[in-house]
């Protein structure tokens, strides 16, 4: 909502259903707990957001089955968010980089589908001889197409959590509704440690999964490298939608 003023009037500009929440988030349909720091927990964000759950878009379908057949549903949901008042769109699964171009073309507002889109930015900050590494929920199904959709070099090293004891089992396989948060953290940290051990030239880590921000600080403390996630990316993204007004 824009308010314009002159010496005699103040006019509030309308045309939307909801105001004050310019960022819309497309959510997968899931029942696991979304703890603070998770993209799907409203308290994670220092600004209001709009949510829209995409019916039928389970984590298993999106992460393990390439989101086959779901593009029209994501486009429709994104359009709904724009009609409500969203001025930009993001998603709560890094694997949706597959749909980056299509959703952006369909909705006509800025779109950032995946935390992976940060990888080229982070690479630009690193000294010669260092490169970005990725920690993903599923290394075995993160394909070259996913990387290309986010502009990530295909030779970027990555490690997944699918061999862990909790994180993958709860989030992707939906084996239970509850989650052992401490064990989930260990799964993410161990994946990051494995990434660095295998690739000593990794100088920074990008977390693909939007459920990983609660564990980013623990991983950073363990490996001693910068760690970036969907929280770092979306706070940057939102800053352009609502630049800070300085006194």
Principal-axes geometry comes out as globular
CATH architecture assignment name of the largest domain: 3-Layer(aba) Sandwich
Helix content: 25-40%
- What is the strand arrangement across the widest sheet? 4-3-5-6
**How many individual β-strands?**
10
CATH class of the largest domain: Alpha Beta
- Mean pLDDT across every amino acid position: 95
Order of helices and strands: EEEEHHEHEHEHEHHEHEH
| Structural class computed from helices and strand pairing | alpha/beta
What does this structure look like?
34% of the residues lie in helices and 16% in strands. With 247 residues, it is α/β, with parallel strands linked by helices. It folds into two domains: 18-114 and 233-241, Rossmann fold, CATH 3.40.50; 115-228, 3-Layer(aba) Sandwich (Rossmann fold), CATH 3.40.50.1860. Helix 2 (71-84) packs parallel to helix 3 (100-107) and helix 7 packs parallel to helix 8. The longest helix is centred in the C-terminal third of the chain and has 18 residues, at 181-198. The chain starts with a strand and ends in a 6-residue tail after the last helix.
